[in-house]
Amino acid sequence: MKKAGVLGATGSVGQRFILLLSDHPEFELSVLGASSRSAGKRYEDAVVWKQTDLLPESARNIIVQECKAEAFKDCDIIFSGLDADYAGEIEKEFVSSGLAVVSNAKNYRREADVPLIVPIVNPEHLEIVEQKVKSGQKGFQICISNCSTAGLVAPLKPLVEKFGPIDLLTTTTLQAISGAGFSPGVPGIDILDNIVPFISGEEEKMEWETRKILGGLSEDKMECRLVSEDAMKVSAQCNRVPVIDGHTECISLRFERRPPPSVEAVKQCLRDYVCEASKLGCPSAPKNTIHVLEQNDRPQPRLDRVRDNGFGVSVGRIREDPVLDFKMVVLSHNTIIGAAGSGVLIGEILLKKGLI
Amino acid sequence: MKKAGVLGATGSVGQRFILLLSDHPEFELSVLGASSRSAGKRYEDAVVWKQTDLLPESARNIIVQECKAEAFKDCDIIFSGLDADYAGEIEKEFVSSGLAVVSNAKNYRREADVPLIVPIVNPEHLEIVEQKVKSGQKGFQICISNCSTAGLVAPLKPLVEKFGPIDLLTTTTLQAISGAGFSPGVPGIDILDNIVPFISGEEEKMEWETRKILGGLSEDKMECRLVSEDAMKVSAQCNRVPVIDGHTECISLRFERRPPPSVEAVKQCLRDYVCEASKLGCPSAPKNTIHVLEQNDRPQPRLDRVRDNGFGVSVGRIREDPVLDFKMVVLSHNTIIGAAGSGVLIGEILLKKGLI
Amino acid sequence: MKKAGVLGATGSVGQRFILLLSDHPEFELSVLGASSRSAGKRYEDAVVWKQTDLLPESARNIIVQECKAEAFKDCDIIFSGLDADYAGEIEKEFVSSGLAVVSNAKNYRREADVPLIVPIVNPEHLEIVEQKVKSGQKGFQICISNCSTAGLVAPLKPLVEKFGPIDLLTTTTLQAISGAGFSPGVPGIDILDNIVPFISGEEEKMEWETRKILGGLSEDKMECRLVSEDAMKVSAQCNRVPVIDGHTECISLRFERRPPPSVEAVKQCLRDYVCEASKLGCPSAPKNTIHVLEQNDRPQPRLDRVRDNGFGVSVGRIREDPVLDFKMVVLSHNTIIGAAGSGVLIGEILLKKGLI
Amino acid sequence: MKKAGVLGATGSVGQRFILLLSDHPEFELSVLGASSRSAGKRYEDAVVWKQTDLLPESARNIIVQECKAEAFKDCDIIFSGLDADYAGEIEKEFVSSGLAVVSNAKNYRREADVPLIVPIVNPEHLEIVEQKVKSGQKGFQICISNCSTAGLVAPLKPLVEKFGPIDLLTTTTLQAISGAGFSPGVPGIDILDNIVPFISGEEEKMEWETRKILGGLSEDKMECRLVSEDAMKVSAQCNRVPVIDGHTECISLRFERRPPPSVEAVKQCLRDYVCEASKLGCPSAPKNTIHVLEQNDRPQPRLDRVRDNGFGVSVGRIREDPVLDFKMVVLSHNTIIGAAGSGVLIGEILLKKGLI
User: Fold this and answer.
1) CATH homologous superfamily for the domain B2-146+340-352
2) SS3 call for A61
3) Cα distances (Å, whole numbers) of residue A287 to A120, A263, A272, A280, A313
């Protein structure tokens, strides 16, 4: 069993990390870090637990620590659910203290030598970590992608692998409120009988992260290389909708190749996709990475978000698009494959690859 | 005062017609038609009234008639909220009996000599009616557009008038449930904490109707001419969302002209637009046809749907689009400018033009 | 026109005050007070306006003041939407500076010489103010009741007047989220697909305020006298539900008199009730104070909350109760008759009575 | 493995039966019955599956039968999710054909020799079945209680056992929409931003069923004996709320005994309660029959409805009541312990008792 530390343990992402790790076959909850307001308390007393599952017994009595690397030095891996306001400095200290940090925060996503990972999509970017470990470096940083990016890139990856570059890509998102956390998150008065057609910074993240995740590595495998803005134009329109969990995205895309593949070929490609994490036998990896749905009114967040415990992505309504080549609807679980779940699955891949 | 008949008076669109006409300065509720189940009853007894406004006194005691032209022969105008299952035959009988029918049903929208009207957009298509009236024809049919089409074309019209053709257009809709009517409409179990990414026939309607509404007339002004599919490619993705009233649409468009206008020119064009109904002084016409919003999180359906009593359209987040030229968010009130309200405003225009 | 000042002008209650006063026939918006963070700005720049009506022109350019009495000295009346954290000291300073303060805050509700007013229920308690004014006192404090209390006491008042004391009273509330304000108010994550069976302090307020509002005055009319806890036992269970506006209450009551009146007599009593504000001709007073609904599935918040612009209360399902005498469902608009609207109507009564 | 038949297999209760039985250690899905419209089709083709879990493999290919006893003659037990319109005749035919029927329909609940069972509450009423079986009767009928009754009686049973009769009982319910089924169930337009303060027949069911379930048996153990209306007065007020699953009930009760027990004694009694199904080791029985929650804002349906897979009941806010003795909030999962889950757990008890 590997020892896992969780940063930001009382927040919404931290709580999800704790749920996913509490019963995990390979990791054990070891150290929990939170703000100085919580430090010194039993976790049960420090947290306002807001999950549908009960607070796990294994976490209840752990004494919360401040987020200083010293307290986490025996951890094999650190999962960070810290807010961006705090993640920058704290994670830097952890990495420079030789710790392996998998973070949900946005702070280091744009660093060329930090892999930005959706574990069912681009685990090959962990090669950067492999290079670092080989060269004797102990601490390293890995970033989890933005929640809405994760759903978007899941079907794109097999399509690009099979049919070559996508040069135009649009997505309009209908995003669940759980992504905004608890305090305060999205006010009820803003989201009952309403839509908010704006999520700060989200469109920029989606447009940029997609090009990093679908990009390759430098020749020395020390850095990520983005798909250029010219090679792939990405446009996102992001909306917050009255849904608890599950981001729905209406996407449209054009392949560079003419003529494009058939609708049936696109569907088959998605059905056939088996992510590397599944091949490696990671315990959280989905049985079915992409569920291709044929009913015309699916996927729906309430019905489809928990496929493969939230690690699988559902794609429906794959059809030709009068403007680009294809349009389709993608659904992913924003707090599992879009956040903490991705973190844990990244940890499992690191373990399989001997990087922790 | 012109005498107005309402068909489908007990349904959701019919109820809205009755509300809008009950206090109207130019029309008076004269005859109400519904199914044989309701015929013979006082309106109050026939209807399950589901509006936030009380059932108007003026409608309460009207005895409901069957939908036969004979009973409506003294009406100057007929507003039809009939379901498509019934509208076909009934409206045909009404028109051939010499009545002026303004219908919310889809049945005759695709007829070349039937104007498909969004009254704040293309009242010039009523020229067809003018030709018919001039030639001595008494009955005629006018169709109200689909609810989601109405919101889409509102900003397009002034843009095309000023900047020339739009050749690519995409829209992803987040549509309110009131558009689906009452019995049963959208089941609660399908729409609480959920999105349904499909509305039967809706995408086809939007893609086709847009090309009719933005198209011109034949030389003899007897028929509509569609913008060709080659000249303007339109792609719609339609979603039902947990919102009572107000369709939100994330649209993206490209002008034929290179270079395209500036963002500021686009905004100014929309701000400057005054629809003909307003110029004519129609009582229901919006003061401000298009509200251009500058706050980055607007328009929102709950806050913005009632601008100009639901006859105005709100447009926000106008910005450059990495894939096409511009993206923006459009909000329109689906039961007002998207249905019964459009019908009434068409009636007002007909009256101003002396066509009824 | 009387000059009105508004305290807490940027908050949710303050915004409602501004809407109600902006077009008022007797009051004009004169001074707006808010925190020092907002002071010195134009109101439009200081506020995050979250109403479905547009920010009124008359308020847009008013320069926000700090909440010091000096700036409000020319006001004839002060409407306070201040949070309880600030209301205590600020309102005290205003009253001692000779100003008439009508407050939505809870701070002074329990003072014996402060009338706690639901204007459609107990305006006779303003006699205390009359005594003060007669005795030459200039400043005085009036409190608006808690939002859920307002709905509860509306039907109780005519019943007690006609049938004598109610000795047992229970209410289970289903309260809208708008009552919790904006920042943050009720988090969306807590209220979508959910109920929160607790509102801090609410049950105690309802149980106590009801006994004050239905109570009388001391002999010298200088103080309120509560109905004793022995004479009327009140039990409240308060829930927050996913509704924007409108508090629904399932109430049950027993009269002291045996046998109790008939169901029909109870209904007739409520139908016949005309509140004093209506008799005085106050512009905001409801035409129909209590709407007695006969359909078995009403009142419903979305359909019935705006009766008489939110100043009327709806009561339905009046029927015998196997445990007490009668049960019924009461609906009131929490931000109108339950908050700012009550404040304005109190102001109108004060004016009619010559107290401002 | 016992062979189970399901009637009404395509409906909402039927789908839940299939989910609960598909992986069951003691029952196997054997025959599925539905309307003649579905009969002859593979289950997968006959059903519009609307569960968050995927349609179980084991049910997918079963050919749906008409609801005639002949086709079910090899079944050891029949679970009926039929609508009341059909349940009457069909279940009668099944019982008279010698089959054991556990039904969710209301039709036979009021028959004195038909046990009305909440399996975590009154399995001792199955004694009637035992008598029938002993006497050689083969077919018998058992009814599952109404969904909202199930939650109500769960905490009452241990309280009455320990502290003696409850003579006054009130409950105001906030009921989830899943209880109303799919076609159409509760229309979305009725329940978004709304409350419906009426559910047809529900209050009468709760008031009557509670007295049957908490009652005893006749001396010969052949019939149920109700608690008389004089001995226990029950009053219910039922509301439909915008919640998917989970009925919340605000209840209030008075014990006959004076003085009543303390709040702490009431809590301890509920905490200590272990239902017979748990003692018998039934696989679906809850580990913890009643979860007594101490946080003041719990139970909440979204967070607490799945305790013990929906077979446990949560009780919170236990406190003194100014009008009766105690008030508290009860939450139960309406489609599990309130419907299909109860049916399955009744089946498990029958099996443990050797009655099937």
Assistant:
1) NAD(P)-binding Rossmann-like Domain (3.40.50.720)
2) coil
3) 11, 24, 12, 12, 11
Q: What pLDDT digit, counting tens, does each position of B122-174 carry?
A: 999 999 999 999 999 999 999 999 999 999 999 999 999 999 999 999 999 99
User: By CA distance, what is C185's nearest residue in A?
Assistant: A187
Rounded Cα distance between B151 and B307, Å, is 13
Cross-chain residue pair A243–C192, CB shorter than 8 Å = yes
**How many angstroms separate the CA atoms of B280 and B282, rounded?**
6
Q: Which of B164, B128, B123, B130 is nearest to B145 (CA)?
A: B123
Rounded to whole angstroms, how far apart are CA atoms B165 and D38? 52
For chains A and D, count residue pairs whose Cβ atoms are closer than 8 Å. Answer: 17
Domain boundaries, chain D: 2-146+340-352, 147-332
Classify the C-alpha dihedral C38-C44-C48-C53 as positive or negative.
positive
The one catalytic residue among C24, C247, C291, C333 = C247
Q: Which of A177, A190, A239, A250 to mutate to test the interface with B (most CBs of B within 10 A)?
A: A250
Q: Which CATH superfamily is domain A147-332 in?
A: Dihydrodipicolinate Reductase; domain 2 (3.30.360.10)
Residue type, C144: I
Least CB–CB distance from A52: residue in D50, D52, D303: D303
Nearest by CB to residue D329, choosing from C169, C197, C250, is C197
Pick from A50, A183, A188: CB nearest C188 = A188
Per the CB < 8 Å rule, is D322 touching C239? no
- Report whether CATH 3.30.360.10 matches the domain C148-332: yes
Contact A188 C187 (CB under 8 A): yes
Q: Where are the beta strands (DSSP E) in B294-350?
A: 313-320, 326-332
List, in sequence order, every beta strand (DSSP E) within chain C. 2-7, 27-34, 65-66, 77-80, 100-103, 116-117, 140-144, 166-175, 216-217, 224-225, 233-240, 247-255, 290-293, 313-320, 326-332
CB-CB neighbors (< 8 A) of A50 in chain D:
303
From residue B292, give the alpha-carbon distance in Å to each of A316, B330, C87. Answer: 34, 10, 38
Question: Averaged over A227-250, what is the pLDDT?
Answer: 98
To the nearest whole Å, the CA of B154 is away from the closest chain D CA by 26
What ipTM is given for this predicted complex?
A: 0.96
C58's CB contacts (< 8 A; 6+ apart) are C22, C23, C28, C29
pLDDT digit string (tens) for C269-298? 999 999 999 999 999 999 999 999 999 999
Task: Tell which residue, A15, C243, C194, A45, has the closest CA to residue D298.
Answer: C194
